[in-house]
Amino acid sequence: MQLLSANVINKIVVMISNMVITRILTRSDFGMWGYILNIYSYASLIAGLGLDSGAFQFGAENKGKGEAYRYYKYCLNIGLIINIVIIAVFYFYIHITELVIENSGLYIKIYLPVLIIEYLINIFSIMLRCSNRIKTYAKITNINTVLIAVATCVGACWGVPGVIGGKYCARVLSLASIICVMRQDLKNLLTASMLELKQITELWNYTIFTGVSSAFNRSLYLIDVTMIAQLIRNTEEIAIYKVSTMIPHALMFIPSSIIMCFLPDIVGHNREKRWLKSNVKKLYFFSGMVNFSIAFILFIFSKVIILLISGDQYIEAVGLFRIHLVGFFLTGTFRDLSVNILAGLKKVHYNLFISAIQIVSEVVFNYLLIIKFGMYGAAYATVLVEIIAAAMATFYLHLSITKMQDTSFAEP
């Protein structure tokens, strides 16, 4: 509840800041900013090649032990090196390619180094979560959100360059605040010894599959905008589509908060069949009730919400918004919960299979439906893919727990 309440405050602040930004920036500038974020997000998908997920899994398994810091140190150091390479690759790609949105290349190059700062913040946040310092994590999250909201809103007065400058200022200040709070953890990181080869191999075996699966899952939200840009090439339509997705995507903090709180316990009980059967059912029920209630209320008042948040210039986003609310319910209740629990049970190979199916389906459905229905085709494609992924993940999780050999009463 501490984490959920902190996230509620954060999302309210983010929503208000988005309202301000959409009203300060012209529709064309907001479309440009959406495209820049979309390209940046592809780099973010592969940040550290998924080592942050490995840091969480092995940090949670070794909670309270010095061994955890060895994993954190390795994931931090190697992840930073990987991110520098990723930035260099994107720089080269942008240099040799003509992007579909004119003048966006320079802005993307300026914004890409934020990836390094965000990775540092992410690893430190994982350390707090794995050690159950939820109050501290919530405070850091609140500071980070408020700084970004204020800085980007002020920066929006100077257009897209101002928003980028605001993002930089906010991220640097957020990192400084985390370093102040986690001084002892930094000492533990510096003094931690290197992992053994066997541990590194186990870590990468988990990380590669989980990281690729996570990247595929998150890329579903990016493929829509990318293909709209490629097939329609209109910044104003990109802006309308981005507005329609802002709230449904932001609402994902609710199932994410539930997962975030309970996943360390699921990892700790990942061989106990009775415990899992009982508690996973409760998670589905609780998450489903919350998600359905929110989606239903927002669906009824969708027109008022779009007018309130972004004004009548974005009234065309109402129908798209309703479609994405359906997707929010399906993803938050079934797909995300199922794949995260499967990751906690180390069923990472099947997660990768689901993710691969999603990506292929998303590209095919988007291509066919955008050509026929325009922006609406992208929204229809996303919901269809979410139905497929939710069914596959939920069924396999049920099967995995049912076939599991219970070790609840085994000797420690």
Written overview of the protein:
The chain has helices at 2-24, 27-45, 51-61, 67-96, 104-111, 114-130, 134-155, 159-181, 183-191, 197-231, 235-250, 253-268, 273-300, 302-310, 317-344, 348-373, 375-403. Mean pLDDT is 85; it is low at 408-412. By secondary structure, the protein is mostly helical. Helix 3 packs antiparallel against helix 4 (67-96), helix 3 packs parallel to helix 6 (114-130) and helix 10 packs parallel to helix 16 (348-373).
Which geometry do the CA atoms define? globular
Q: Level of helix content?
A: over 70%
Number of helices: 17
The tally of strands reads: 0
Backbone CA Rg: 21 Å
What percent of residues are in strands?
under 5%
- What series of H and E elements makes up the topology? HHHHHHHHHHHHHHHHH
Mean pLDDT: 85
Uncertain runs with pLDDT below 50, 5 residues or more? 408-412
Structural class: mainly alpha
How far apart are the termini?
31 Å
Largest sheet: none
So what's the oligomer here? Answer: single chain
